[in-house]
Every structure is written in C-alpha cells, then in structure tokens.
Amino acid sequence: MVDTVFNIEEKQMIIKNPEAFELEDIFECGQCFRFNLNETGSYEGVACGKKLKLTKNDKDIVLENVTELDYHNIWKKYFDMDRDYVSIMEQLSEKDEIIREAVKYGKGIRILRQEPWETLISFIISQNNHIPRIKKCIEALSEKFGNKISDGVFAFPTFEQLADIKLSELESVKLGYRAEYILQTAKAVAKDGGKTFKASMEADNKELNEYLLSLKGVGPKVANCIMLFGYGRMDRFPIDVWIRRVMHELYEIRENDFKKMTCYAREKFGEYGGIAQQYLFYYMKNR
C-alpha cells in the first residue's frame, strides 16, 4: 500500500517514499514524450488533458497542480501505483545476468498507463524519428489543434479534431510522410464515432493487435508500443533498433531474427515482457 498525503493549500499530492519511482528513469526511457526536465530538477508535462509537475523531495515524490480526486481518478492509474515493481524486478533478475544488470540500472522505471489515442498517434510520429523531434512534433500538434489548458499549455487533440482538418494543415506541423498516416488514422477512428476504437480497450491481445495493424502507419513494433504504453498489455515486447542490439549483442540472437527475439522474450520474461523491454532499452541506450 502506497502512503500518500494531500496538501490542500498547495494543491500537492505527496507520495511517501515510493518504491521503484525515479523521475529520470520514468521520463527518459522513451515511453512518453510530453514531460520535460526543467531548470529546478522537476519534470513538467501534460497527460490526460491536465498539466502536471513532479518533484523528488528527499525520498518522496510531490505531484503539483492536482486535486485529491485527480490523483485517485487519474494519476494513481497513470503511474501504475497498484503494481508491485519490486517483486517484478526480483522475478526478472532471476532470469539471467543481463536482465539483472538492466533492472539494476533502471530500477526506478514504471510503465505509464497513457491514453490510447495519444499513444497511437505519438508512436506513429515516432517512426524513423528521434526523441527531441518527436517531442517538438507532438507539442506543435497539440498547440495547433488541441484544446487550451492554460497559457501555453494544450491538450493532445482528439481524433475528432484531427479527422476534421486538411492534410495541408497537418503538414504545417512538419510531420513529413507521417501527416498522411495520422489523418487517415483519425478519419478511420472517427468514421463510427470512435466506437470500434473504444471497444478495442476490451479486446484480447490478438484482436487488439489486428485492429491496430489495420490502421495507417501502424506496423508490428508500433502496435506493440501502443499495446504496452496505451493499453497496459505488459507482455508486449516492442523490438526497435536498441532492443535489436540488446538481443543480438548480449543475447546472441541474429540481428534480423525478430521472430526468435519475440519467442525468446515470451519464454524468458512472460507476462512482464514489456517491463523487461523497458529495462533493456534504457540500459542499452545509456550504458
């Protein structure tokens, strides 16, 4: 049970000495794109249509600009606070020395439960792209088409908002070839008022994967990222360039043998494949 204290006057929720919760590990491991480090060492960003600031205060995590209701209805789920990451780290560390070192390096990672629609578009944008540019594109997209939250802060645009614009307007955000993917995907989701997309929340992994792959601009890696970060399917194991390096250089699997990498992850890491992937990604990228 996580101990929390709400400061009404300061609109702060204080998470007391949480385990496996390091801001840098969470926000710099490539899973989300709207939180940034500021000059004071805090992270600020936008998620679920709300602005949030997080600060590490000794061993506590302080969430600012929140209500107690927001924490319990939004942020508790967003930061996956009900999952026992310490137990998961112990289980994964028993698998082999490689994942043990990766877990040790990224021990503060938590898998964020992001909004599926935003995750879908964000990872379409992420294709053949680097993180600083992905962040710029998402911020520009939000500023141009999303609802205003406060001065200079905008929510991520809905599928209705994106489906109702012209390709030339979307291209002005400098998305390149991804602009057409985003527009077609928004139109496909909006076609039935989002009913199929909303129903996908309850689909099993096979059905969800097939649905995501039917959307323009979504391939196997992007689909797995969306399933992991947007739908909380913790067994997903997205294979990008960094995971290919891990599996090739450290696990000695042929670099282009994605099937063997996927099978290995399923057999070795099982239901926690996605969490293992984040530890391995973060470790390989920064070691």
Describe this structure in words.
There is one protein chain. With 287 residues, this protein is an alpha+beta fold. The protein is built from 15 helices and eight strands. The strands form two sheets. Strands 1-2-6-5-4-3 form a six-stranded antiparallel β-sheet. Strand 7 (148-150) and strand 8 form a beta hairpin. Helix 5 (116-125) runs antiparallel to helix 12 (220-229), helix 11 packs across helix 12 (220-229) and helix 13 (241-250) packs across helix 15. It is globular and about 50 Å long. The two termini are 33 Å apart. The model has no long low-confidence stretch (mean pLDDT 96).
Outline of the structure:
The protein has 287 residues and is an alpha+beta fold. The protein has helices at 23-27, 68-78, 85-93, 97-105, 116-125, 131-145, 159-163, 167-171, 178-190, 195-199, 205-213, 220-229, 241-250, 258-269, 273-286; strands at 3-7, 12-16, 35-37, 43-47, 50-57, 60-64, 148-150, 153-154. The chain is built from 15 helices and eight strands.
Task: List the topology elements.
Elements: E1 3-7, E2 12-16, H1 23-27, E3 35-37, E4 43-47, E5 50-57, E6 60-64, H2 68-78, H3 85-93, H4 97-105, H5 116-125, H6 131-145, E7 148-150, E8 153-154, H7 159-163, H8 167-171, H9 178-190, H10 195-199, H11 205-213, H12 220-229, H13 241-250, H14 258-269, H15 273-286
Which descriptors apply to this entry?
8 strands, 15 helices, single chain, 6-stranded antiparallel sheet, 287 residues, alpha+beta, two-stranded antiparallel ribbon
